[in-house]
């Protein structure tokens, strides 16, 4: 029951205060009015609190935020795996390739391509922090990938150059093992067979039957074909580029001409005894920067007869 203050009025006739009486119907109306106002206020504030603190839209936003956080963690985890793969796989292989190709290795401090900066000063702190982390992560990976891509491009060019150099290197014997009888004279000081004095022998003498094929020991250009006045008889000189050259002397026949390009295994002549020679053989020299070097340091003794034959057959097909 609602307690209300009593109200009085002054009766001028009786010269006294009298209580104002309210009938029952009016009092019931006041009670229902107060109840209606209370319920309305309760419903209004409940609706307001629900909309602000626990609305459906709020719950949707919370789920979206949770999902975005999971996606961000996934992105950072992928970045960690990519960075780890770069650092412990590609960087290591890249430096190994550089060592094989005799190139300077790149320091890890350069490969990691560190980046820096600060978060934006305007806007919510969380948004700025995530934006900074993502931008920094992308910049770092992008820089690392650009450095690695440039390094691989350099390695590719160097590998091509190395491959070309390997094909030009005088790396096989000029006489097939099947035709070779023996190597009669090594590189270095020996007794001259005509004058019996100590002289420097600038190559190797391959003893083989007269007329056996003589092969180019590496790719190159024929620069000299002539009967030599130095006792070499019929002589061929090939420029292999990269500072290397080779000389073939005492040939019986010559099967190339000056200016001609030859491949490793190309038949350039036959074994003879022209010039100052005591019998059929090939005098063979390797030149580096126009100076004789020991040929045995360059040709591969591990080649089998079958492998040597494959080189000869390939050269024959490429030159036909």
**What is the CATH topology classification name of the largest domain?**
Glucose Permease (Domain IIA)
Question: What are the low-pLDDT stretches, counting only 5+ consecutive residues below 50?
Answer: 116-127
DSSP E strands, number: 15
What portion of residues belong to β-strands? Answer: 15-25%
How does CATH name the architecture of the largest domain?
Answer: Distorted Sandwich
CATH superfamily of the largest domain: Glucose Permease (Domain IIA)
Give the terminus-to-terminus CA distance.
Answer: 122 Å
Number of domains: 3
If helices are DSSP runs of H or I spanning 4 or more residues, what is the number of helices? Answer: 5
Instruction: State the oligomer.
Output: single chain
Q: Using the CA coordinates, give the radius of gyration.
A: 49 Å
Structural class: alpha+beta
Top-tier CATH class of the largest domain: Mainly Beta
- The share of residues in helices is 40-55%
Largest sheet: 8 strands, antiparallel
Which word captures the global form? rod-shaped
Order of helices and strands: EEHHHHEEEEEEEEEEEEEH
On the 0 to 100 scale, the average pLDDT is: 80
Layout: helices, strands, pairs:
Blueprint: E1 8-11, E2 16-19, H1 24-53, H2 56-100, H3 108-111, H4 125-168, E3 182-185, E4 188-191, E5 198-201, E6 204-207, E7 213-215, E8 220-228, E9 233-241, E10 244-251, E11 253-254, E12 261-262, E13 267-270, E14 281-288, E15 291-293, H5 305-319
């Amino acid at each position: 029951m609602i307690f209300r203050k009593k109200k009085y009025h002054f009766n001028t006739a009786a010269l006294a205060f009298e209580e104002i009486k309210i009938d029952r119907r009016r009092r019931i109306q006041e009670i229902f009015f107060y109840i209606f106002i209370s319920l309305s206020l309760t419903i209004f504030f409940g609706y307001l609190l629900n909309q602000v603190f626990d609305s459906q839209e709020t719950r949707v936003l919370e789920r979206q935020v949770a999902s975005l956080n999971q996606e961000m963690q996934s992105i950072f985890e992928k970045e960690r795996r990519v960075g780890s793969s770069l650092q412990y796989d590609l960087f290591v292989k890249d430096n190994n390739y550089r060592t094989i190709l005799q190139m300077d290795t790149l320091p890890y401090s350069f490969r990691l391509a560190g980046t820096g900066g600060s978060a934006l000063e305007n806007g919510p702190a969380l948004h700025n922090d995530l934006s900074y982390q993502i931008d920094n992560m992308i910049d770092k990976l992008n820089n690392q990938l650009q450095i690695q891509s440039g390094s691989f491009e350099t390695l590719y060019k160097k590998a091509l150059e190395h491959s070309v150099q390997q094909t030009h290197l005088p790396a096989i014997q000029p006489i097939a093992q099947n035709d070779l009888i023996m190597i009669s004279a090594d590189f270095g000081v020996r007794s001259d067979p005509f004058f019996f004095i100590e002289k420097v022998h600038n190559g190797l003498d391959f003893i083989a039957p007269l007329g056996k094929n003589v092969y180019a020991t590496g790719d190159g250009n024929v620069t000299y074909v002539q009967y030599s006045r130095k006792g070499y008889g019929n002589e061929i000189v090939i420029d292999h580029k990269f500072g290397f050259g080779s000389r073939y002397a005492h040939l019986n026949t010559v099967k190339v001409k000056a200016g001609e390009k030859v491949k490793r295994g190309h038949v350039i002549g036959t074994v003879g005894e022209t010039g100052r020679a005591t019998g059929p053989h090939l005098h063979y020299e390797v030149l580096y920067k126009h100076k004789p070097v020991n040929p045995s340091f360059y040709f591969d003794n591990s080649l089998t007869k079958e492998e040597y034959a494959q080189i000869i057959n390939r050269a024959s097909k490429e030159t036909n």
